[in-house]
Amino acid sequence: DIESKRQEAIEYFNLDPNKKTLLVLGGSLGARRINQLVAKELVGFSAQNVQVIWQCGKLYFDEYRHFDNNENIQVKAFIDRMDLVYAAADIVISRAGASSVSELCIVGKPVIFIPSPNVAEDHQTKNAQSITEKNGALLVREVELDTQFANIFNNLLSDENLQKSLSQNIKKLAKVNATKDIVEEIVKLVK
């Protein structure tokens, strides 16, 4: 339940409630290409009055922590209060691993997936496509970041109807009781 935690989240992360908050998730180790993109786009985000919580991963924290200015940009190696960061976020940029996709469906925020192309059978792209085909998120491939990202992000940021639509559609895809349902099926099969 993140709906009731927005004010707590704004205070916890010391955010400006009058600005949009972009959450960037690169996984616990980090995602080199997403980090490069965010570093390049930071001036643009600030110019659009967007504050950024950037989880760059522990492998990249030393490289990017100098961008942390506690005003518009917070750079984190790791985020331990995911409930609060999700509550604070207006837009999310994320990889598309199974756990991330599952969590983001439950959270129901507008998402831009940037799948890792360096995974077995390109499964992250398939994960992202399963959501984007149902109009629940946007997808930008790494090879398209330099040419497509800015337009896609700017369009999402300026279009509140698109934000609402993506949020509603991704939330419909959430499997909140997935673990319980799987266990019940296993128990049936065992019997």
Characterise this structure.
With 191 residues, the chain is an alpha/beta fold. Helix content is 49%, strand content 13%. It has nine helices and six strands. The chain has a six-stranded parallel β-sheet, sandwiched between helices. Strand 4, helix 5 and strand 5 form a beta-alpha-beta unit.
Describe the SSE topology.
Elements: H1 6-12, E1 20-25, H2 32-47, E2 50-55, H3 61-64, E3 73-76, H4 82-88, E4 91-94, H5 98-107, E5 111-113, H6 123-132, E6 138-139, H7 145-158, H8 160-172, H9 178-190
Parallel strand pairs: 1-2, 1-4, 2-3, 4-5, 5-6
Q: Largest beta sheet: what is the strand line-up?
A: 3-2-1-4-5-6
**Gap from first CA to last CA:** 35 Å
Extract low-pLDDT stretches: none
Structural class: alpha/beta
Which range does the strand content fall in? 5-15%
| SSE ordering | HEHEHEHEHEHEHHH
Helical percentage: 40-55%
Query: DSSP helix count?
Result: 9
Q: Globular, elongated, flat, extended or rod-shaped: what is the shape?
A: globular
Largest sheet: 6 strands, parallel
> What is the number of E strands?
6
Mean pLDDT: 94
Indicate the radius of gyration in whole angstroms.
17 Å
